[in-house]
Fold:
Amino acid sequence: MNVKRTGTTVLVLGDSLSAEYGLKRGSGWVALLEKKLASEKIPARVINASISGDTTAGGRARLAALLASHRPTLVVIELGANDALRGLPMQQTQDNLSAMTQAAQAAGAKVLLLGMQVPPNYGRAYSDRFAQVYVDVARARKTGLVPFMLKGLADVPDSLKWFQPDRIHPLEAAHPLILANVWPELKKGLP
Structure:
């Protein structure tokens, strides 16, 4: 079901990490992406369809309407962290990510998955399996992948300096680094 498009539209389907939770509006990585595209003279519209607390099931339920309404050329999927925090079955997370990817591709969009890792207190085996979900979906569906969107922030010894007091949501100062992690792969998905 390829649909005719006019111009480039990037749809970001995410959770609080993309919805500017605890930040002033316009300071999160998605807003910075809009500015980056403009500064690079890449004519593109960015739709931030992120909702704090969203899970892969929630994103999957919302995606069809978003695809029909916005007809994106690129869909960035940043979901899964809340699945892990709620202890949802990993297979469910993988199935939802795969279904969203497949739906976006069927609508003619390229897909970029933004991988997440869980805190170390979940145990090494669980953490490794969770990170592998993104790799497996990206490989199976042939999508772009950023293995860990918080690389250099959450995996460094002084990581707390990058996070709000809840130790989950990045501070405003971290969002340019998130965009730096995402941009190289995202740019590959632009026409």
About this structure: Helices lie at 29-39, 56-70, 81-85, 90-106, 124-141, 175-188.
